[in-house]
Automatic annotation (TrEMBL):
Residues 1-34 form the PHD-type domain. Signal peptide: none annotated. GO terms for molecular function: zinc ion binding. Gene3D superfamilies: Zinc/RING finger domain, C3HC4 (zinc finger). The keyword Signal does not apply. Keywords: Metal-binding, Zinc, Zinc-finger. It comes from Aphanomyces euteiches. InterPro entries: Znf_FYVE_PHD (IPR011011), Znf_PHD-finger (IPR019787), Znf_RING/FYVE/PHD (IPR013083). This is PHD-type domain-containing protein.
Amino acid sequence: MICCDFCDEWYHAKCIGISPTVMSNLEAYRCPGCAFRQGMSHLTSKRPLRPSLKQMIGLITRGDALQIEVPELEDLKALVSLGNDLLAEIIDFERHFLHQCSLESMLTHVDQLKEELQSKVSAVARYETLVILEPAHQKLRTMQWFLRACRLIFETSPAPRYSQLLILLSDAKQDKLEFSTLELQRFYHELEHNVERAIQWVAQVKALRMDSQNLMHLKDEAEEISQYLQLPDAAITNFNVAFKFHMGAR
């Protein structure tokens, strides 16, 4: 059995296609339902078989070059025009969003921004029942990721789980997100730095090479890391056992 790190529902590994070998090395898991709710279902689901906006433009260009009148070519042009208008709206919204991307002020209107962003996501989804609007995806995903990260990091009490931040960071890397402002870049690099510290801490505990001096260092580091995230229960338990053993033997 494996538990989703977001909804805490349990799943049979065989039912969700995870082999025992993969499961033994898995540090974090997000179920498809949570992936969908977080706007990340594109990482696990297949792309719909629809033409892209670029392909539509190419088709119209070829149609205009013909010496005969192509039926419904004007409808295709109207569809492309609608896509370009929608993309322009998203670019304007992104500019507005980035203008408000100060962490000091973001949390005061994160719900409003999420609602406005969701309306753009829904508009793109409706348009993509006919045509894939690829240029909009990267812009929307960066904004979705940042809002999700803000809520996870600043609104989770006492702190987000180690596994949740692993997935959050993995999402940004898999989507190859680009952060166009210094504020977003600093936010991402701080997240990356803190998660990397936690990864190194967990690796040292797993290695079981812990002398008394190193144990004290790991104890202090765990207290610092725990201000930002919750370290895995198994790693904490192993560390506590080793700490009590070594300290008791002195």
